[in-house]
Every structure is written in C-alpha cells, then in structure tokens.
Amino acid sequence: MAEQKQLTMPVLGMTCANCVATVERSAKKIEGVSEAVVNFGSEKLTVNYDPAVASPQAVIERVEKAGYHVPVATLELPITGMTCANCVSTVERALNKKVPGILEATVNFATEKATVKYIPGAVTRADMVAAIERAGYGVVQVDAEADLVDAEKEAREREIQDQTRKLWVGVIFTLPLFLFSMARDFGLVGHWAHEAWVNYMLWLLATPVQFYTGWDYYVGGFKALRNRSANMDVLVALGSSVAYFYSIFITAGLLGGHVYFETSAAIITLIKIGKLLEVQAKGKTSEAIKALMGLQAKTARVERDGVELDIPTDQVVAGDVVIVRPGEKIPVDGVVISGGSAVDESLLTGESLPVDKKAGDAVIGATLNKQGMLKIEATKVGRETALAQIIRLVEAAQGSKAPIQALADKVSAIFVPVVIVIALLTFAAWWLGGAGFTAALVRMVAVLVIACPCALGLATPTAIVVGMGKGATQGILFKNSAALEKGHALQAIVLDKTGTITKGQPAVTEIIVPEGYPGGMNSELSMVNGQRGKTGDRRPETGDSSSFILHPSAFILRLAASAERGSEHPLGEAVVRAAQEQGLALSEPVGFEAIAGHGIAAEVDGHKILIGNARLMQTQNITLNGLGQKAQQLQNEAKTAMWVAVDGQASAVIGIADTIKEGSKEAIADLKRQGLQVVMMTGDNEATAQAIAAEAGVERVLAEVLPGDKAANVAKLQAEGLVVGMVGDGINDAPALAQADVGIAIGTGADVAMEAAGITLISGDLRGVPKAIGLSRATMRVIKENLFWAFAYNVILIPVAAGALAFFPGLPVYLRELHPIAAAFAMAFSSVTVVGNSLRLRGMKIG
Fold first, then answer.
1. If pLDDT is split at 50, 70 and 90, which confidence band does 755 have?
2. Which of 551, 563, 493 is nearest to 523 (CA)?
3. Would you please indicate which residues are annotated as catalytic (active-site) residues?
C-alpha cells in the first residue's frame, strides 16, 4: 500500500451540513485522496492522501472551485550557507518534498531568501527551519516574539468584519422599510402612503439589502447548485427573491395586491444577524484548545559552553541543558538533572496540587515551576513535546465524526430538496384550494425561510469540540469521537490491579516485633501509604538518627534496611525506601550474602542479620518467638511476610504489599455511583486478590489471569451482554484495551500513547476514569438535546409555516398564518440555540 499522509486545513464559507457534504465530496474526487472528513464545528477539513498522486494544492483548488475558501499564508526565511544554484534546488526540494503543509517554496539566490506559501496550522516556522538545517543550510533567526502570521485567524476576522458591515447596511435600510410598511398596513399614516410612488421608494430601500447584504446567499446558492447540491443559501435566496421579485411585479403594475419588500429585506437581515451570532458562538467552542496552544513558553534559558543564553523555544534541541527559575514555565519536556521544586501541572493533567520534582524526575513542557530553580536536560522538543502531541491528538479527535452524527448527515443530504418540494406543494395546495395567489405565495416563502439545515449540521460537532476541549484541560484525551460516544454507554469497568488500583511497587505496611522485645515495649508499628508512627526520641547531643532512642520497630527497620543496601530485590528496595522516608541513618553492611530462594545474610553494627522467608528461619534454626501467627495473618491480608532475625533470634516480621494508590478508593466509589459494575483483574492468587479488592471496594474479581489471557477475560464479560471499559497502562494491557468497547490508558503525563486505547488519562490518577465517563455522558446528553431540538424545530415548524394550523380557528392568527418575517426570526436563532447549548458543557461539573 502506498504511503499515506494526513493534512488538516481550515475551510471558510460553510453554512450548513450540506456544505460539509459538498466539501467532503469535492475532496474525495481527487485521485489519491482516500478519505476526507470535515468538522463543521471547527471548520476544518482533514484529508488522507497519497503524496505520489495527490497534493495539498490540488485539494485547495478543488475546495475553492466548490465555492469555499482555504486561507493560506506566506513567510520569508533568510537562508545562509548557499553557494551555487544547486544549493537553491536543494533547499527548495527540502521544503517542498519533506514538509507537509507547504504548498510552494521558492528560493532567490540573489537575496538568499526562501519564500514559503503554506497552510496555517499545518506547519510551523520551526518545521521549516529544521528541514533547511537537515539539508545542510542555516536560517537567520528572528525575534522570539515574531510568530508566523495567523492567516486563518486573519481570514476569519476579515470575514466577520465584512459580514458585520453588510449587516449594518441591512439594518440601516430594513428598519425604516419595516417600520413604514407596518405603519401603512395598520393605517397609522395618511392616504398618501398608498400612492404608487411609495412602492418605488420601498423598492429602493429593499434593493441594497437584497443585493448587497444578501449577495452572499446568491453566490453560495449558485455554487451549491453548480456542484449539484443545495444548501441553506439556496433556501434563503429563493425565499427572499420570491418576496422581492413578486413585489416588483406589483410595483410595476403587472400584478395587483400588496408588496412584500419589507419581508424580503427582513428575511435577509434577520438571518444575517443569526449567522453572525452563530459564528461568534462557534469561536468559543474551541477556546479550550486555543488555551492549550497558548501555554507554550516563548523563550528558554539554555546553558551552552558554560554560557547562559535566552533563545526562542523552537531553537532548543534535545540534549540542551535548560535553566528554569521560580515562576517560569518549563519550555520543553525533559529530565531534572539538578535542583528541586514543586511544579504546577494542573493545566495539562487536571491535578490541582503541585508535584514535587527532584533530580531524575521527568518534567513536562508548558508546566509552571513554582518554587526552586531547576536545571533540566531537554528530551523532547518542538512537535515531539507532550503538549504538542496533546494538541494534535485533540484536534484530530475533534475532526472525527461520531456514529450518532450519521442520521443527521443522511437527513441533511436530502433536506433542502425536500423542503423545496414541500414549499412548492404548499403553494399549489393553497392556490388551488382557493386561498389566492398572494396567500399561497406567502406560505411558500415562510416554508422556504423557516427550514434550518444548519442546526442539524451543528448539533454534534459543536458539542464534540467543546467536550473534547474540556477533557483536554482536565487531562482526559479521546482518540476519536466514537470513543467519546461509546464511553457514555459503558456498563462495566475492568481495572488492572498493578499500577492502576495499586502503586505498582511493594511498600512496607507494618513491622511487628515479639512481645517483650528488648526496649521495654510491645510493638506493632503500622505503615500505610508512607504515613508511619513515631520512630523515637532524639538524643540532644546529636542530630544523627543512629543516636535515637529508637522505637523497637524503627530499630529493626534501620538494621534491616542497612543489611538490604546491597540487595537489588524489590522487597529489599522497599525496606530501604521505608527507612529513608523515616529519615533513619543507615550503616554499611559487612559480609553481605544473597541466599538464593531464601533471603540475605549480613552483619550490621556488630549484629548478625538474617532477612528472608520462613524457610530461611527453619534452615538456620531460628526461634520464631511467637511471630508465626502474625506472619500468617499478614499473608491472609495479601501481604508478604519478611522475617528479620538479629543475632540468632526472630526479631520482627515486616509486612510488605503493593499498596493502594491515593484516590483509587474514591474513584471506585465514584464509578459505582455512576451505576457501573467494577471488576478487578489480576494475576495474583484468589486470596490475595480478594484481600486487595476488599480494601479498594471492589466486589467482583478476576484472579490468576495470565497477561496473555486478559483480552479473553474482557471478551467473556462482553459475552455476558455488558458494554465493557478496560483501564490499564496502555502498553502491557494493549490487547485487553483493544478488545474492550472502550480502552482507557493511564499515562504518566509525559508519554501520550493512544494507539490501543480510545481514552488516555495524562495523569496516573484513577479518579480521571469517572471524570472521563462523566464527560462522555454529559457530551452525549447535550448532543441528543441538540439533535432533538434540530429535528423537532423542523418537523414542527415547517408544517406550521405551510399552514397546518390554519384549520384551527381558536388559535391566534400569527400561528395560523405564520408570517415569513417570523419564520426568518425563528430560523436565524435556531442554530444559535444549538451552539449555545453545546457551550454549556464548558461550565458543567464532570465525574
């Protein structure tokens, strides 16, 4: 199969779902284009194409020919290092062939400048510079604040300014026209108002509105018909033109009756108001992703050859040492090499509390350094940073179509032709039924004007854009719209135990010493989630913890941790970690010996230490000192019992377990409140699994599951008729994530992996799962409300406009005879209502 490339470009001028279908159909006609999808909410076209056959320029030309506009921009790059005409060809080839989003690049050898025509948003200046540098040449760097021209933004602003200007022209002419016409109809002015010349004055007022304010509808309608389709522009142009030209015939004396110039003008002006409000509201739907784009730091302070330099962020390369002072944004992804601080990652992960960072810890670009100075080594820069990946993933997901949108698309495809047929039938029925030519014409115009395909087209994509944007700010990333839609229907959630419910590493939970252990105290020191009891009292003559009058359990912990310093076993590392967290000073072990399958032996501060399992105690003939029952109790609680013998006597049993992560219990409780069945999957034996499940609050357990059998167990749950979500780390659990109806991968914040999972949580906090499901449910609820409104509006009001209520004399006359101006008002605000309802998601509480 030929190599496929993907490109996303803005498309301006779309007014309804039929325009979406036209753009998609036009792009797909190009040879080499395998897929073309338009997101009406964000007004973006995404195409997959074979670069050997198709080109971005061909797509743009086809879209422009269909009557729509793709904004492009031009940038000049000063090139260094060119010595001959061949260098010119090399640079042009590097830009034209290697960088997606560039439409044309030409190099002038005399001025040593490259002129690049590109699609805004599809490529950055840094991408262009990198391509030129890879070709062996340089680019003169500009001021860090000098960004690429946002041609898309400028084009949209120009469009809004143009439409606003046309609207004001419409208001200026329509208002006196409408007021005078109403005053004349209600007899509020003299008989002079019925003179023939007055109709010519009304004609004069209506004409600028019809052919200046409303010209876009004629152009849009013509282009739609040329493409063998029909859109909202066709309906508006038809409805207003019928009223306008009918009135001209009356004014010219070719027909008798009432003129409707105020109707044609009011239709265009009201609909123009509605479209402007819609555009402004649609702009707010993507504010979340725009906020993410604005997080990136503009400059970075790097250390090169011992000198600190402030450079644009896009000039940082992997391996650079970056210095970040308190209060500054971290410019790129990296690893802390010195310093310590608390970093606010809330805008990316959704976690409100700052995260402590020290040497060896990973940091994410665009997060805020709160306290100390950090020196980091850049690991990912430019388009490879977590923030850049998140933005690309969210934009791609927003551009995908949800399955629920399929019905609206099918209806939209035939909507306008069906409305035109209904309008013609309405005219024929009332005229032939004896209502008169004028009355039949008015009802036909009302039908044409009140029909609104826009609301149908906006119902799903606007909610998707807002919902996914809100998710991104909470650290929740959806792979596509289908994942967001499926999430609301979940009935069961399978949680992988290790690393998902638990921390994924063993930790000391308690230290139990025998009754009457030397030190004068009976002791059972509990350690849960790193919060431990008092270690002892410090002697005043020293600050060294080895000079503590230690609690017996802390004394044992210090000896055991000192002995384990030479061990690489995970259980030994857990003991050392516990002692370090207690601030205990450790000694160097002497004569360390690893006893295979049993444990270790060493000498610490003159004491002979044995640490291991019960078999080690038996083979070394160690007296257990009554701790056997305690050890069994620990094992019943799914903990590992580690025996410690000091100088030939069993001195303690240390309980070690993979502890429950902070927030796991709360997350599981939230999932239950959402009505979901929570299932824990683990490779542990049944007793161990049940003990952990009981602590976490999970009732159903799948134990002793081999890694290769996880997907099969998910399939068994699906066979029970359940819609299943699987939560795992996204790598080890990839088959199970793919098997589930919705796979949810828990990330670490620095690695965004969404291949197997439909949803990725940037943070490792399990509480993100109920939030993701809550967001999915809220978004789908809004989509269904939007679709209900869009369908109900048209299903109810089109018959009303056609005169269906005329046979109910008890109803008010404005319902029995719906005026086209009222119809235009209703149509103008129907799509605004849909977009406004979608925007409610921004303030909704999820989870």
1. low
2. 551
3. 496
